[in-house]
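Give me the fold.
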Amino acid sequence: MKEIVAIIRPNKMTRTKEVLAVLGFPAMTACKVLGRGKQKGLAGEVSFEMRPELLQQEGSLKYIPKRLISLVVNDEDVSLVVEIIMRVNRTGEVGDGRIFVCPVDQAVRVRTQEEGKEAIC
């Protein structure tokens, strides 16, 4: 099993969730996060008016609003899920996000005590 952690643009969250669900991956954890990449939070990446205290010098932001999604999948599904996330979220512009794939040693469903692959199905 692997955990796929993706940091994506907020405006891509709904479509990402819809496509993953249609292709059989409806379960995920999602949260609002703030961050910035090596571009140091370019102000042009956001489409809303920014409060002056969020701005730093030279038109950059301290942090950019993003969405973090996390889902655990079987090893054989990793390539498909990563490809789905990339296709939905790729704009070709700075700030498209990152995807991380991490090993999962064990999973347990609390309610039924199922373990391993059965716990994530």
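The first helix runs from residue 13 to 22.
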